[in-house]
Structure formats: structure tokens, C-alpha cells
Amino acid sequence: MSYGLSVFKADGSLGFSTADITWQTVAQFTVAANASVSNTYSEAAGMTIIVQRQLVNVPPTSQEDFVPNVTVSNNSQTISVAPQSGKSSSQCIIHVLAQDS
Amino acid sequence: MAYGFEATNNNGKVIINDTIENLHFLGKASRGSASSGFGTIPNYSGANTALDGRVIHLYTITCTGTPLAFIKPTDYARWHGLIKQSVSSTTWTFEVMISGTSTSNPPVLYCFVNANNAPSSSESYGMQVFKANGSTKTFDSRKQPLAITGGKTALAPPSDPTDSSGTPGTTDGHAWNHATNDHDFRSHTRYNTTSDSSINTSTTMFACSSLAQGVYKRQMEGHKFSETCVNLLIGTFCFNGQHHYSTALWYVMYRQAFRLRAGNFDSGWNGYAAGYAFSSAAEDGGWFGNTNTTYNTGSLPYTPKTINSQNSSYIIADSSRYN
User: For residues B323 and B31, what is the distance between their CA atoms, to the nearest angstrom?
Assistant: First the structure.
């Protein structure tokens, strides 16, 4: 390439460059069962956000395991996690990923 | 910005800066034990006993951050789902469910973690980027930063996981002790597809959690009435009347699963657990009194329904960059 940035591994092969695309990680946290959490990340303002949810310690054959809902607001800066309406929610890992819009 | 570092890619999008951490390759999780089963409904051998089968592979990896796991299928024809992730101290355990009953061709789990929790490197050159505090790392070229090849919306799977038309339910009026399942509980034709040209079936790996789950049952109620009758010259007289009741129940619990095809991301289902229960009884009052026959291979996890069915996001990447 004629311009940009390339960073190489020790063996000389290309590791990462400005030809790549990525999702950066804004935060990872665990939300307790039935809890509500709202966090603000000013550095994510205006970015495209996706939130990956992963259930923790699911007792898969004994009860309903409701995953909490996630909303993104405040120009992508605020991530809110709360149980589904009228439901209990299970413990859940939250990955907040951001990509330049 | 007044100071710091920022790199934008060929599309003008920021891919490295000093405020948000990049994900870096942590390693491939170590595969442990595997359990398989549910190729058929347990302890039932009649019609429609076939299920898709499922294998649970356990993986572990150690790190101080919270890893994001990508599943790299070895057999792309099978359905895959990350159904559980837990931690004890700094050891993370993952459960990956795949369709079928063969424990061969297990998927590979590639794990990524934020830059500041990526393991140290002995390499003496490269590029690191830190936040303004000078201690929190956002990028380290030595630790294989995550580069993605695509990602879109993973559609919610169809509400009804079962291959037969219509959801199974409870019906009565069957003959006493009738126990022939008339519903196909397999799920391999039940999925929704997102078209994605960046998916191939040789190196693509994906990150998407299995959140939707469901329980469905088929229940058949049987009945007959018996009595002893005597024909006399003056008429027929019956006595010792007795009702006989039976219940046959089949159930399957499903978890959301995904399948990669060239150019397509399928969001569907795979059976996780199943059971069969049968009971037969005659009420008191007959010459032979009350008799009971019961058989049970598990209880229904919860009232039949689908839960957590909603669209989510998936990310895909090229696993060959991290071998």
C-alpha cells in the first residue's frame, strides 16, 4: 500500500494494518441475576455499538433462563441492562463493542 | 484530537486509538471432556423417536479479563451454539453444543481479550498504544489484534423449533395406553438465514451467543371404560364398572444454534435435552382393584414455550490469521 499503517509480527508477516476492520471493546462486565445496570462511556459517543450477551452458569434443564434486555442510548454512550418486563433474569456477561460510524 | 494516537482504515474508520481498547488474541481454549446423546428420545422406541442429537464440548482458558469466544467449526454442516460461559478465579469454562452424536470433529474455540488483559509478550519490538493515564494499554501489535471480516444481525430463530407443522400439544380421546408419538421433534429445517457474502466454510469463525431456548411437548391422554355384564332372561346387567386412564408425554428442550454456509448465516435450533413419560392407571372399584403403571425419564424443565427469541449481532473473522 502507498500510505497507511502496517504492523508486523516478529517473523516479518503482517499482523495488522489500516486495511483491516475491527470492533474495539468498550467494556466487559457481569450483571447479576435480576439486576439492572446503566453505564456511560463517553469515549463511545457517536460510534456504532453492539452488545454481546452470554448467559452464565445456566441451569439448562430446570428453569426458565431469561436473558436481560439491553438498550443503547445517549448518542451511543449509555448502555442499560435490565430484566425483560415482568420476568426474572439470569446472570449475564456483557461485552460492549464499538465501531467507528 | 490534541494528543495521542489514532489510526483509521482504508474506509476512514478508526481502528486504533488511545481511548478504546482493541481485542487481542488470547489463545485457543483447551478442549476437555465431551458428552453426547439425544439422537433419539430416551427410553422410547416408537414412531418419531429420532432427534438431531447433540454433543457438549467443554473448553477452558485462563485470563484476568473477560474473553470473547469465537467458534470455528470443523464440520460446517453441523449446528453450533455457545450455551454457557462461567469463571472460577481466572479460569474460564465454555460449553459448546453441536448437533449430531459423534464427538469427532470438535469445533475450535478462539478467544480474544481486551488489550490491557492480553498476556505479556517477550517480543522486543512492535507498537503499543496507551490511554492518557500512561498505563492502560489499548493496542499491542505483538498480541495479534482482532481483525474481522464481517458481521450482521443474527435473526431470531423461528418461534416453533419443531420440524412438524404446528406446535405439539395435548390431545385426549386416544385409546387406553396409546403411546405412539405423531410429532417430529427434530429441528434441522427450522431456521432463519442472514445472507452474508463474507462467510466461507473453510476458515470462518463466528461470535454469537445462544440465547433463545424453548421447551415443547406432545401429550396423549388415553381412556377406556370396562365392566362386567351378565345376560339374563330379563335383560343385561352390568357391574364392577371401571375407568382406565393413560398419559403418554414426549418433550424436548431446545437451545438456539447457528450454522455457517457459504454466503449464509443460519440461526436455528438444536435439541439439548429430551424425555418420555408414561403412566397408566385404573380407578378403584373393579374386581382387581387399582393398578398403576408409570414410567418417567425426566420432568419437563418448564411450561412449553419459546423464550429469549430476539435478533442479536454476530461477528465473523478469519481463523487462519490466528493459527
Answer: 16
